[in-house]
Write a structure and sequence with these properties.
Layout: H1 3-9, E1 42-50, E2 79-80, E3 90-91, E4 94-99, E5 105-110, H2 124-136, E6 148-153, E7 156-160, H3 169-174, H4 181-184, E8 204-209, E9 213-218, E10 234-240, H5 245-251, E11 257-258, H6 265-271, E12 275-279, E13 283-289, H7 304-313, H8 316-323, H9 359-368, E14 372-373, E15 379-381, E16 384-385, E17 387-393, H10 397-412, E18 416-422, H11 424-433, E19 438-444, H12 451-459, H13 482-492, H14 497-514, E20 517-522, E21 526-530, E22 534-535, H15 555-562, E23 564-565
Parallel strand pairs: 1-10, 1-11, 17-18, 17-19
Antiparallel strand pairs: 2-3, 4-5, 5-7, 6-7, 8-9, 9-10, 11-21, 12-21, 13-19, 13-20, 14-15, 15-16, 22-23
Helix pairs in contact: 7-9, 8-10, 12-13, 13-14
């Protein structure tokens, strides 16, 4: 997945306060979810859909065309990996798993007594079929590794790999939907079907669908009991006429669950006591620098001292206040989240980036590297002025604001910065091919919170290419470091925590020194809730699931089966 598509999936575009905005909700009452005359309880969810829904509930469509509840609500994986906090995977269709010593055999115990939403039994044969379907289909298997799953007992599936594959664990156990063999074995191309009659094992099933809204109802055959069983009878998904209407929908009680960046959220919460929110920061906003001259990068940003100077020249408190409305979190120069990954950050010095500018430090780094301050207030070296350009997508208001603020902050440190606002496609193409000096983007978590996924995607030499050629992964900075490459390879072949920790230290020591990505802050990831009709939503102190109701987030299924209707 490209960095730009991931970045924008981390929130609906900035939502302005629109208290007079008109909602366009098909069949949506003014009070959102409710208890009907028949006693049916419901909640209303806004997943960011602007305009009509296109009916697609195919969990194997890896282009992201499926509708939000497909993964996690209608279909389930074997385990749930919570990106919002550190912890062990939550058992779903699997109950336990274990690796052999060299990471070539993964044994999974499969939950017994599970039924599909059509009432038929879900078995280990379905698990084997689902996993092998992905392995054998190049359009579905993006890992580059084929595996073979076999049933060895009614409650046991053994997955065999050709080489050490510890790092495939969260992908296979936590990101592959289990589908009924009786249905999918009759489908010639599993990537293209829209699956308008979904049959899954999730807590809810499809009840009705229109282009403007659709309704899910409790799955009467769901395997969960007690706290694991859904209690709200129906979940209604709505679309809005435009993104601005999200604020009005929340305040008017026309939605119970959504995930939008609302700049005035704190004020909204203060005026509406039934509302609450949680913030689950997941991605580090950073200046991506084309830093590797040996691969064709050109410009002052190829100088390590310049990248270090920018790191110290930032006033991140101002950036948070004016660009993120105070909802961002301090980043770590290790590029890991200092909340979820605190134990994997190997030095106290790497825990948090400076929050205020240290202009003297920035200037001293430049001067020690031979840069001299000119009469115009900007540094120069060997006849080249310290003049940089940063690319940013026009309309990404928070990022546009950061760039504008950095112009003044960097000027104080003798660094000239020009801002190049671009259309998204052009911005993405420039970053992928390395035809840029700096680019405003974010470093995103992979399929789990394991640092391997970030480090291999953003730092490995194998994940980049010479300027002019598209980077095969997300290392668009062209960063290449032999010590980092060796440490990433070590992470891919071990399950020993002490060995991993040593590899993390190697990587972090190098990237804090080299600074290919200059971290700004950790993006907010806000979810909003209405507590007048249901309670038990995630809170800041209890993020039992990553709650953002966007496509591909398995955590929404956990949230919807955890909440309880207000009596």
């Amino acid at each position: 997945m490209s960095t730009h598509s991931t970045r924008r999936r981390l929130g609906v575009a900035l939502v302005a306060v629109a208290t007079a905005a008109t909602l366009a909700l098909s069949g949506c009452s003014s009070d959102g979810g409710s208890k009907s005359a028949s006693g049916t309880t419901s909640v209303t969810l806004f997943s960011g859909q602007v305009g009509n829904f296109v009916e697609n509930f195919n969990p194997l469509n890896n282009t992201g065309a499926y509708l939000q509840p497909t993964n996690g609500v209608l279909y389930e994986p074997l385990f749930y990996y919570n990106k919002a906090r550190a912890g062990k995977p939550v058992p779903l269709l699997g109950t336990s798993y274990s690796w052999n010593s060299d990471g070539t055999v993964l044994t999974v115990k499969v939950r017994q007594g599970v039924k599909w939403s059509d009432g038929k039994a879900e078995t280990a044969d379905d698990v084997v079929y689902s996993l092998n379907l992905v392995s054998d289909n190049p359009a579905l298997n993006t890992s580059g590794t084929k595996w073979v799953a076999k049933k060895t007992a009614d409650d046991t599936v053994v997955i065999t790999f050709p080489a050490t594959s510890f790092t495939l664990e969260p992908q296979i156990l936590g990101n592959e939907p289990i589908v009924p063999q009786s249905i999918w074995s009759k489908i010639s191309d599993p990537t293209k079907v829209t699956n308008v009659h979904p049959v899954g094992t999730g807590p809810y099933m499809l009840k009705s669908f229109t282009p403007q809204s659709f309704v899910l109802e409790k799955n009467p055959n769901y395997w969960g009991t007690g706290d694991n069983a859904p209690k709200v009878d129906e979940v209604r998904y709505i679309s809005l006429a435009n993104a601005d209407a999200a604020t009005s929908a929340l305040q008017a009680g026309q939605t119970d669950y959504m995930g939008s960046f609302l700049p005035t959220l704190k004020s909204i919460m203060a005026k509406n006591k039934n509302l609450s929110y949680s913030n689950s920061p997941q991605a580090t906003t950073a200046l991506f620098t084309c830093e590797n001259a040996s691969l064709g990068c050109t410009g002052p940003q190829t100088d390590t001292a310049v990248r270090q100077a920018m790191y110290y020249a930032m006033d991140r408190k101002q950036l948070d206040t004016q660009a993120a409305a105070g909802f961002s979190a301090p980043a770590s120069p290790s590029l890991l989240l200092n909340t979820v990954n605190k134990s994997q950050i190997t030095s106290p010095d790497y825990m948090e980036v400076p929050q205020t500018a240290d202009v003297s430090k920035a200037k001293s780094l430049l001067e020690a590297d031979g840069w001299k301050l000119g009469s115009n207030g900007y540094y120069a070296k060997n006849g080249q002025e310290l003049d940089l350009t940063i690319n940013v997508v026009s309309g990404w208001t928070d990022y546009d604001t950061i760039c504008q603020l950095l112009q003044g902050q960097f000027k104080a440190a003798g660094i000239k910065l020009a801002v190049n606002q671009m259309a998204q496609n052009a911005w993405s193409q420039a970053e992928s091919t390395g035809k840029f000096q700096m680019s405003m983007n974010s470093v995103n978590m992979g399929v789990s919170s394991d640092p391997y996924y970030q480090y291999s995607a953003y730092l490995a030499s194998s994940a980049t290419a010479k300027v002019g050629s598209p980077a095969p992964s997300t290392n668009t900075t062209r960063y290449s470091n032999a010590a980092v490459d060796a440490a990433v390879k070590k992470l891919a072949t071990t399950n020993d925590e002490s060995v991993k920790q040593a590899a993390y230290k190697t990587i972090q020591d190098q990237i804090v020194k080299d600074m290919p990505y200059v971290p700004v802050y950790v993006n907010s990831a806000l979810a909003e809730y209405n507590n007048s009709r249901a309670t038990g939503w995630p809170t800041q102190n209890n993020q039992y699931a990553f709650p953002l109701p966007w496509g591909g987030n398995w955590g929404v299924g956990i949230v919807l089966k955890t909440i309880r209707p207000v009596k």
